[in-house]
Amino acid sequence: MKSKIFLLSFLCFMATVAVSAQAKNAPRSIISTTALIRKYHDQKELSGMQKGELLELYIERIKVLVKTLPYIALVTKPGVTMADLGIPDDNEHKKVLDGQALGTTTFLDTTVEFQRKMMPYSDKGNLIAAILFYESTLKSLHEFNDLNEM
């Protein structure tokens, strides 16, 4: 009985190792797959929200913009890989992509920390206007896609 448990545990361990090894070699998306807006809002809806909710929306939109805008000449949607664009998936290009991802993460960590400490002092109307502006910028990426397909 103990040998069956040991064998089953060993097989589960090996399966986990195999899956994690494949994940490291999987092609990475140029734009983070977390760079998505779940819902767009209008001014009336935002006006009914508390300042804390608005701050979270504001931060979410900043994150999406930072994770998207630098790459629009290459791609505008999450999930597209270097291989999809014909960029060689070699160590040099992976290193550049990893460096960019690290820089973006560092920038966002600093920015979000700043936003959480300073933006509670902002006017609610300014937060609403900024969220609407960011959302219109994100919506304009759809127009950019249409222009790009011409």
Structure description:
This protein is an all-alpha fold. 69% of the residues lie in helices and 0% in strands. The chain contains six helices and no strands. The longest helix is centred in the last third of the chain and has 28 residues. The chain is extended, with a radius of gyration of 21 Å. The relative contact order is 0.14. The model has no long low-confidence stretch (mean pLDDT 85).
Brief overview:
This protein has 150 residues and is an all-alpha fold. Helices cover 69% and strands 0% of the residues.
SSE blueprint:
Blueprint (H helix, E strand, L loop, with lengths): L1 H24 L17 H5 L3 H18 L13 H4 L5 H28 L5 H25 L2
Oligomer: single chain
**What Rg, in angstroms, do the CA atoms define?**
21 Å
Largest sheet: none
Give the fraction of residues assigned to helices: 55-70%
SS-derived structural category: mainly alpha
Which of globular, elongated, flat, extended, rod-shaped describes the shape? Answer: extended
Terminal residue distance:
67 Å
How confident overall, as mean pLDDT? 85
Tally of DSSP helical segments: 6
Low-confidence stretches: none
Please trace the helix and strand order, writing H or E for each element: HHHHHH
Strand percentage:
under 5%
Number of strand elements: 0
Descriptive terms for the model:
150 residues, 6 helices
